[in-house]
Design a protein that fits this description.
Chain lengths: 298, 244
Amino acid sequence: MHFRWPARRATSRPEHYLAPARQRDGPTKISVSRVSHRYENGVEALRQVDLEIHPGQLVCLLGPSGCGKSTLLYAIGGLARPTEGEIILDGAPVHKPGPERLLMFQEAALFPWLTARQNVTFALRSKGLSRKAARATADRFLAEVKLQGFEDSLPHQLSGGMRMRVSLARALAMDPEVLLMDEPFAPLDAQTRSEMHQLLQAIWSATHKTVIFVTHDVREALLLGDRIVVMSGRPGRIAQDLEVRLPRPRDPEDERWVQLARHVQTLLRSESPHEPPKGNASEAGIGPTPPDHLGGGG
Amino acid sequence: MGLLLLIIWEVAARFGPWPELLFPGPGAVAKSLFEISIDGRLLTGTGRSLSRLLKGYALSVAVGIPLGLVTARVSFFAKAVKPWILGLQALPSICWLPLALLWFGLSEAAILFVVVMGSLLAVAIAAEDGVKAIQPQLLSAAATLGIRGPRFYLGVLVPAAFPGIVTGLKLGWSFAWRALMAGELLFVSGGLGQLLTFGRDLLDVPLVMAVMVAIVAIGILTDRVVFRGLEMRVRRRWGLAHSR
């Protein structure tokens, strides 16, 4: 890990709760080595990214929009193939989506013609569950995200927050080993978002799945993450790899937490390079857009 | 408004400079329509035409939808087959008739061929557009959820493309109807087209117009009853039109 601690006059307190991530012994769950990605339009989204993620970690990928964090997530999910480098999951290279990894998108991505319950059971049935078992599992997880009574509603009859909860229930019901989340709570209102944060923390504490959570929100990262990987953009690289040592459940009203948030914010600011002039060709397509070429697979 | 037009038509037919033989008023047309309804010619003609239409249309849909899906999903088909589909679509369906007559002779098969060629490509193109219009997010979701194979095609691709497919079904139906009428007019066959030719041969203009009215009525009726209903249901279910 090429970590450099910024020489800055930050108060000593935040550093107490935020330390460079240590090299850990034991197996790695996901190993990203020398991954670079260049889009077809020539934009370099990732350059030589190395990252080791251990089983049961909740890692937040934090960075400004367009820093390649979503691209990295899609690559780990097998939905995008990086132009260079390798991603290893449990010892085997990743080339395509697999049942042990599940990606949650910025939108709920529900099948609009299926009800909330059917959205979950349809996914479960493709895993080979019986009709009955799928239904029972679906209802259990829909209850877990507090959607009792809405099982038979169609997605367009639900609010944005409820749709996202269906999506979360669907993801959790599939019981993947690794949950990849691409700013899934960004479009929600503050109230719902905070409910979802609590739910995710509760579920993670109970199951200890490996979670990679992409966000551009420092507060969200500090609320959720064991470890915060700060990325800088153009091209995307890992700038900081930090371990968060705040006890859970974390309270955003907590003084320590507020200071920490401020601290990371300044870190982040020092990492973001100068914006290129507006209208620059490199501006186009840099965002965390999902790759279009997925369609070809089948 | 409609009534006013009918009155103007009647007045023009009675007092206009045209011979009433060639330009009958709505009264005469209605009378003729009534006559052919009573003596059963309208019913047998319609039955004959509709059964042909249904056969040809069913074939078009059965081939056209899978063709559209495959063209949208498989790059080989997109490159090799799509130009043919687009090119042949530019051909008016009746242009297939000479070929059909040479290949199949004066038979049912020939007219079915014309109907199928008239509507198949429209169905395929609409199905392909339906697939192209699917949000990429849905396909990514299916991929990450591990939905593959026939489950993916039947459970995700077809329903996701369904709004486009319904447009294709509608378009295909009206194209098939037109192709059938053109085909029936051009060779003796029974059916509404033949009834039209029959009217012309006897210089029975009210009969010609009565059959035209019947053809229009059938077209509007199927569009309103079958396709409007289907479209509304799909739009509601898919959340494209808000129901509540």
